[in-house]
Write a structure and sequence with these properties.
The complex is a heterodimer of chains A (552) and B (335).
Chain A: H1 7-12, H2 47-52, H3 74-88, H4 90-97, H5 110-115, H6 122-137, H7 139-144, H8 150-154, H9 161-171, H10 179-183, H11 190-203, H12 209-221, H13 229-247, E1 254-255, E2 262-265, H14 269-272, H15 276-294, E3 298-300, H16 316-333, E4 337-340, H17 345-358, E5 384-386, H18 387-396, E6 411-415, H19 418-422, H20 428-437, E7 440-441, H21 468-489, E8 493-496, H22 499-512, E9 517-520, H23 521-528
Parallel strand pairs in A: 1-3, 2-3, 2-4, 4-5, 6-7, 6-8, 8-9
Chain B: H1 3-24, H2 29-57, H3 88-101, H4 103-106, E1 109-113, E2 121-125, H5 128-147, H6 157-166, H7 178-196, H8 198-203, H9 206-229, H10 233-245, H11 256-271, H12 279-285, H13 313-327
Antiparallel strand pairs in B: 1-2
Helix pairs in contact in B: 1-9, 1-11, 2-11, 5-7, 7-9, 9-11
The chains are: A mainly alpha (552), B mainly alpha (335).
Chain lengths: 552, 335
């Protein structure tokens, strides 16, 4: 990370003109020169993790070694894999066929903006695979490859080992954020193409460990971090102690309680690492409040203890296998409906995939907030509500007593996470919650928020340690916008509703904008919410003195 | 030399020569004027249909629109019903805006980075690609519609209207048709981007230059006939009506230029379904645009959904039972 490249050195490398237009060469000539470079790639999946789910070609291998230990017929496997997916996914087929290479997406990708590497232009990332598709699956390609020079005219190429390595390198430099798709006149979604590419890689055992090991953990232990049931309970109880120190109120949660009203599922990152832990404490405080005031019965589960789904970054099938726990546990416990915590890709999966994959959830009720009477029509079938939808509804109906002054030290801005903005449209609910907990709120520039929001640079399973140069480069556009409001309005806190963001944006800020802290929306709620019977609070959830009490 | 555009340019020029010489030198009017156009039309229709049916045959397992605005949630949260539609009506509007006004392209921005004290990345509205693309497509549409004059008898009134407005700028004789000029200018603009914009240049292949040169060739031969060589319009109308009525007439006094024009158009038609030009059909079918964002409200069914092996609660409890009991977590079986 910083020991390799300082922010200044990273900035020196940025150039949006990939080469002189006079250069006659074709990008396809550069494939052999692609160097899989430390700092830019993630380590290979460990055999053990690949084995847990029985996925193909589990073995030890290393991307920077010559021999990737592929099955002998890897080309055939990939060919058949592409063929199958063209039939199963209209998106894939259309996106392979209709791109006109207009270039509208070119400078929309945070990785292109941060690295200047032309192969990070979304169109080119897709072309890496599309060139193979054209060669092997289209009429024109089949005719032209028989004519000398025809392949080149068609922008087509054979699937060689160099081509495979190039694809692997660059499809693990895409965070599936969908920003390019917003600008594409045909809605071509590079996330979808990356999803297909990674699914294909998994057919021949080419996953990265930062995805494969969380997937394996989640499958067996219930969450990505491999926190075992007793440890999960311990960790939450540790938060309970902290909250009791701060507020004097015991917020002990319930686990696996049959017949509870609501099952609550959040990413395990919230349980594990700062600053997500403060968000987690916010949930505990909120549920305690609702229990005391309104008798709402919420349960957690150690079996369904993961909201996130790294299976989504592996294959559709793996996503389904991990996601199945949510409905299975809701059914076993006999709850009425489910609330999901703050997470990005988790919500893309729940919003756009879960009901289709693992539904129908006919054993659950259409979500109705018993406190406000609000019927969540937008979740009528899936029966899962986002916590900021739920909290916004409570605030709107005046059901929460919030003391904004306890967040008075926060000058906020808000980062829309990619998946909730472009794969759902959850934009104003979190803002509403923030603005009811904090007085000072400033938006980042319009081209960097809402549906045009920039990725943290670490999404889709790329938040490893070994690819820090890549992550910090991809983080630049987001950081640049944060820096802008930091300098203009003195913003000192970046709010977010994504667990990966809470980890990734913290690293991003440390690197690019050191004076800004990252916090989840429900951390603010936890600070502001006045619990029945609480003592005079002197500290916030970070155990720092409340605004106004600093000197004491 | 840059093969990526010199080869397509040469190819279009050779195609032109082929037809011109074929007609002028070898008298192959029937080949270039009748056989090839029919063949091209067949390839176009068959290929287009095959491609679209091929897309339609692929499943749509998930409802995954790209949402570009506030979702429909609670009543008091204002939804962006066009960019994030949850109803068929909203989707329809979104598609109309997309197909007729290129709404997504309208959002286009240009990023710039200033390596100085502030190190700012900035994004400015970039309207030229949108304007150029819109001008190109609408001019092309008008040109095609105007050409219906040659294939209908009597000519429908609306085509007369179209020509009237197209020729509203009265300059010289015969009057200038705006659509032709705009088409040529917009094509040159799109070509210029590919040649001079470093990013677009990098991604462009011969397959991107070829249709542009082809369309320029078509426009140039058309413009040449109308304004310079002044071809025999009556003869041509006889010829084109012959094509429509399968009652072929090879008119006297219509030269190679006309057949070259027809031939280039034929090439465009035949090339269409084999190429990226199929975006014309694809834009209607793109699942990220033509689906409602209501997956949580209404279940979407995946036609090939299949059962998968999961790690069940029972397996989980079997694995961790002792630890769970010790920690005081509820269990189904005590041992």
């Amino acid at each position: 990370m910083s020991d390799e490249l300082t922010p200044d050195e990273a900035l020196d490398k940025i150039d949006f003109s990939p080469r002189s237009p006079k250069d006659p060469s074709n990008w396809m000539d550069t494939t052999q020169n692609v160097q899989i470079r430390p700092g830019m790639y993630c380590y290979a999946a460990k055999a053990e993790s690949v084995n847990t789910l029985g996925l193909p070609n589990a073995r030890e291998w290393n991307p920077i070694e010559e021999d990737w230990k592929l099955p002998e017929n890897w080309q055939e496997i990939l060919h058949n894999g592409i063929k199958e997916r063209l039939e199963k996914f209209r998106t894939f087929k259309i996106f392979m066929d209709v791109c006109v290479r207009c270039g509208a997406c070119a400078d929309k990708c945070h990785f292109f903006l941060g690295t200047g590497d032309p192969k990070n232009m979304p169109v080119l990332r897709a072309e890496l695979l599309r060139s193979v598709y054209r060669n092997d699956f289209t009429t024109a390609g089949k005719i032209l490859k028989k004519i000398p020079g025809g392949q080149r005219l068609n922008g087509a190429r054979d699937l060689t080992i160099d081509v495979l390595k190039e694809m692997w390198y660059y499809f693990f430099q895409c965070t599936e954020c969908r920003r390019c798709s917003v600008f594409c006149p045909y809605g071509i979604d590079t996330a979808e193409i990356t999803i297909m590419a990674r699914e294909l890689f998994n057919l021949i055992g080419l996953n990265i460990d930062w995805i494969a090991t969380p997937v394996s953990n989640c499958y067996q232990t219930g969450n990505h971090l491999g926190i075992q049931p007793h440890a999960f309970k311990d960790m939450l109880e540790f938060f309970v102690e902290d909250i009791e120190d701060i507020t004097g109120v015991d917020c002990t949660p319930q686990f696996q309680k049959k017949g509870a009203d609501i099952l609550f599922i959040t990413p395990s990152g919230d349980v594990f690492a700062d600053p997500g832990t403060y968000t987690c404490q916010g949930y505990l405080i909120l549920f305690k409040y609702l229990k005391e005031k309104y008798g709402l019965d919420v349960t957690w589960s150690t079996y369904a203890s993961e909201g996130g789904n790294f299976g989504f970054f592996t294959s559709h099938e793996t996503m389904k296998r991990l996601n199945a726990k949510m409905y299975a546990e809701a059914k076993r416990l006999g709850v009425k409906w489910i609330i999901g915590g703050e997470c990005g890709h988790m919500w893309r999966v729940i919003h756009q995939y879960m009901d289709t994959m693992n539904g129908p959830a006919d054993f659950l009720e259409v979500p109705v907030n018993p406190i406000t009477g609000t019927r969540f029509e937008n979740a009528a079938s899936t029966k899962m509500v986002h916590i900021t939808e739920f909290t916004a509804d409570l605030i709107r109906h005046g059901k929460l007593e919030l003391d904004k002054s306890r967040n008075a030290n926060r000058i906020m801005t808000y980062h829309d996470s990619c998946n909730t903005s472009r794969g759902m449209g959850l934009l104003d609910e979190p803002r509403y919650v923030i603005q009811n907990c904090v007085d000072q709120f400033y938006e980042m520039p319009p081209n960097t928020i809402r549906e045009q929001t920039f990725c943290c640079g670490s999404g889709s399973g790329l938040n490893a340690g070994e690819n820090m140069e890549l992550r910090m480069a991809g983080a630049l556009p987001r950081a640049n916008a944060v820096k802008h409001v930091h300098e203009k309005y003195g913003v000192n806190t970046l709010g977010t509703i994504c667990a990966i963001d809470r980890a990734a944006l913290s690293t991003l800020c440390e690197y690019w904008v050191p004076d800004v802290e990252v916090c989840g929306v429900h951390e603010l709620v936890g600070n502001a919410l006045i619990l029945p019977g609480e003592k005079e609070r002197e500290e916030d959830l970070r155990m720092e003195p409340l605004p106004g009490l600093e000197e004491e | 030399m840059n093969q990526r555009y010199l080869i397509p340019l040469t190819a279009v020029f050779l195609l032109f020569l082929l037809a011109y010489v074929g007609v002028e030198g070898a008298g192959l009017q029937v080949v270039f004027g009748v056989l090839i156009p029919y063949l091209a039309l067949l390839v176009f229709l068959g290929g287009f249909l095959k491609k679209v049916l091929g897309w339609a045959a692929s499943a749509v397992p998930f409802r995954i629109p790209t949402t570009c605005g506030q979702q429909k949630s609670m009543d008091w949260v204002k939804q962006n019903s066009i960019d994030n539609p949850n109803t068929t009506g909203g989707v329809l509007l979104r598609m109309v805006f997309e197909i007729f006004l290129f709404r997504s392209l309208f959002r286009n921005t240009k990023a710039a980075f200033n390596r100085n004290a502030s190190n700012k990345l900035s994004y400015s509205w970039e309207i030229f690609l949108w304007a150029g693309a819109l001008a190109f497509h609408y001019a092309f549409l008008v040109v095609i519609l105007r050409h219906l004059r040659f294939f209908t008898n009597p000519v429908p009134e609306c085509i007369g209207w179209l020509e009237f407005f197209d020729g509203i700028v009265q300059l010289g004789l015969p009057g200038i048709m705006l659509s032709g000029v705009v088409l040529a200018a917009a094509t040159l603009f799109l070509l210029g981007r590919r040649i001079f914009d470093a990013k677009v240049n990098y991604i462009s292949q011969a397959a991107d230059y070829f249709p542009l040169f082809l369309i320029l060739g078509i426009a140039a031969t058309g413009i040449a006939m109308r304004y310079f060589t002044k071809v025999d319009i009556v003869g041509i109308k006889e010829f084109t009506m012959g094509l429509v009525t399968f009652n072929f007439v090879i008119p006297e006094g219509v030269g190679g230029l006309f057949y070259a024009h027809i031939f280039l158009v034929s090439i465009l038609f035949a090339y269409f379904p084999l190429s990226k030009l199929m975006h014309m059909g694809g834009v209607f079918l793109s699942p990220t645009r033509n689906m409602a964002n209501n997956t949580r409200a209404q279940r979407h069914v995946n036609p090939w959904n299949y059962d998968v092996k999961t790690h069940t609660y029972d397996e989980y409890e079997d694995h961790f039972r002792d630890k769970m009991i010790e920690a005081g977590l509820p269990v189904e079986k005590k041992e």
